[in-house]
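Hey, resending since the last one bounced:
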Amino acid sequence: MQHHFRVLSLVCSLLFAVSARASEPPVAVVNGVVIPGRLMERNVQANLSQGQGDSPALRAALKEELIARELMVQEAVKRGLDKRQDSEDALLALRQNFLIDALVQDDLNKKPITEDEIKAEYERQVKLLSAGEMQQYQLAAIVLENESDARAVISALRSGQSFESQAKAKSIDPSKDRGGELGWLLPDQMTPAISTVAVNLSAGSYSVAPIQVGAYWNVIKVLGKRPYQVPTLQESKSQVQVGLIQQRRSVLLKKLQDSAKITR
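The structure tokens again:
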């Protein structure tokens, strides 16, 4: 974490070193280095997007943060930390990531993804899901630290104890507060060891043997089954849009690869 903070601070230093526009009052001048006013506005907008209100108190706090960052960056540079190989490598990666994002966004600005494209992609995915006749499983789980504890839970269930009460008393998973209930899941949303058992259980039944997943042991119960309910276009819109952006990125990369001279 400290390494990442140093790297980000060095990036900020490069930004701060840019001369402020003549019509733009600086936030501050720290040892001769101008902190441009536009950086304040960007930080304010970032806070507003998270629901905070613009206020003198917010701006004062942001100003102190910008000054503090500049002071720490100057000290890092004074110690030569910006010249270290790991710093240069990290700065190169940050620069690449920023420019790649900027390139993809530039392409999207020139040719935005349309509502028709989103609808067409949504309908394509719905057809694929419908063709598979997928089932969802309402699953509950009791997660335990060892196999013997899992077998003890199964014995308690056989003796008439409820799954919910055992989950609340014995499970080490946060779902214990809900009686182990995990919601509706598709088989590929479960770990293979659990999905193999779940798909063969009838609604209302539980696993008769402990299921090991990593270092832990699980007892599961299928609370219900139903055909997969395809989310609406509105519910899926953001995910579909992200997928289309990735497709655009892949198309752009393929175009660049085809026109590039690459020695491997």
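Residues 1-22 have pLDDT under 50 and may be disordered.

Sorry for the duplicate.
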